[in-house]
Amino acid sequence: MSEGITRGGLRPRFWETVPMDRLSKPEWEALCDGCGKCCLNKLEDEDTGEVALTRLACRLLDDESCLCSQYPIRHQFVPECVVLTPKTLRDNLYWLPQTCAYRLVVEGRPLYPWHPLLSGDPETVHAAGVSVRGLTIPEFEVGEDDWEDHIIEEPT
C-alpha cells in the first residue's frame, strides 16, 4: 500500500489537500454524506433562478438509507439524473444542498462534524437531522401541478 493511502483508497483528509479533479473514485464517492437532499425534486423560478426544495423524492431514493437504490444503473430509470464530476460540479452548485460536501469543498469551507468522513459513522448525518430520512414522499404520488404544495426548507 502506498504511503499516505488508507484502507479503502482514501488519503487522510484528502478533501482539504487534493484538488477535486485529482481525487480517486473512492475519494470522490466518499465526499457524499448520504443525506439524500440532492435526490429531492426541485422547482426553479424561471425569472430569478431561485431553486426551491420539495419533499418529493426521486423514485429511486431509498427513504431509509437516503441513498439511490439503483446508483450504478440509475440512468436506465432516470435519464435526466445529473452526474456530478469535477468538470460538471461548478455548473451544478446552484441546486446542491447548502450542507453538501462537494459544494463546501468547492467554496473552501470545512465539512460539518457530522460528515461520515469526520465522524467515521454514516449514521451521524441522520442523527444530526440534516438528511431526508422519514421526510420524503415518492414523486409519483403527486402530480407535477401540485409540487409547489410540497416545498420545504432544507434540513440543516
Write the layout of secondary structure elements.
Layout: H1 14-17, H2 25-30, E1 40-44, E2 51-57, E3 61-62, E4 67-68, H3 74-77, H4 89-92, H5 101-106, H6 116-119, H7 124-127, E5 137-138, E6 151-152
Tell me about this structure.
There is one protein chain. The protein has helices at about 15, 25-30, 75, 90, 100-105, 115-120, 125, and strands at about 40-45, 50-55, 60, 65-70, 135-140, 150. The radius of gyration is 16 Å and the shape is globular. The chain is an alpha+beta fold and about 160 residues long. β1 and β2 (about 50-55) form a beta hairpin. The N and C termini lie far apart (about 40 Å). The chain has one domain (about 30-150). The model has no long low-confidence stretch (mean pLDDT about 90). Strands 1, 2, 5 and 6 form a four-stranded mixed beta sheet that branches. It has a two-stranded antiparallel sheet with strand order 3-4.
Sheet having the most strands: 4 strands, mixed
Helix content: 10-25%
Radius of gyration: 16 Å
Give the structural class.
alpha+beta
Strand content: 5-15%
- Average pLDDT: 92
Number of domains: 1
Can you summarize this structure?
The protein is an alpha+beta fold and 156 residues long.
Keyword list:
alpha+beta; 156 residues; two-stranded antiparallel ribbon; 4-stranded mixed beta sheet
